[in-house]
Design goal:
Elements (H helix, E strand, L loop, with lengths): L9 H8 L15 H27 L2 H4 L5 H9 L3 H19 L14 H8 L2 H12 L4 H8 L36
Length: 185
């Protein structure tokens, strides 16, 4: 049942009539804090399930078992996903599973798994990977271990117009007169 929004089209009604599942209620408007936490945790669980499943499908060559010519063809047909994106998720899975192995075979709970973007920034550097493994072995949570391995967040810096490189100095605000252009500070 859809609450609010435009009227449902005939195609959507036909599609809904063919579903074997119970109807889904979609509410509109702001969420309560409890609803937002519940839905956020549920979405994180689904995201974790996706990279874990893609990791298994890749490692066990599901594409070949189903008769696809390649991993890329399998992904395009079955998931409408690019090989690049799927491989990012598989690499994320490989990294998280390596962290889990450092925790005596336990599974890292979904709320303690670093984001795929964070692991991508760490996993290409063997030194950072080693720091993460050591920290996890010492009892640091995987999220915290990856955060510690990342470079500190950059503050807003100006860039050198010639090279595009970030300047090492803090930006300075200069106030000038809008009429004559003379510097006031």
């Amino acid at each position: 049942m859809l609450i609010g929004g435009p009227p449902v089209s005939a195609n959507v009604k036909r599609l809904a009539a063919n579903l074997d599942t119970a109807p889904v209620t979609v509410e509109i408007g702001p969420m309560s804090k409890a609803e937002a936490r519940r839905e956020t945790d549920a979405a994180k669980q689904v995201a974790e399930d996706l990279w874990r499943r893609l990791y298994v499908l890749h490692e066990r060559e599901a594409w070949s078992a189903l008769g696809y010519e390649s991993w890329a063809a399998y992904l395009r047909t079955e998931f409408d996903m690019s090989k690049r994106r799927a491989n990012q998720l598989v690499d994320h899975g490989r990294f998280v599973i390596a962290i889990e192995a450092g925790q005596q075979g336990t599974v890292v709970p979904f709320y303690d798994v670093p984001t795929e973007g964070a692991t991508r920034a760490v996993r290409s550097d063997p030194g950072k990977v080693a720091r993460v493994r050591r920290a996890v072995a010492q009892g640091v949570s995987p999220i915290e271990a990856v955060k510690r391995a990342l470079p500190p967040k950059a503050t807003k810096r100006t860039r050198d117009p010639a090279t595009g490189a970030a300047c090492e100095h803090e930006p300075v605000t200069v106030v000038v007169c809008k009429n004559c252009g003379k510097r006031l500070t």
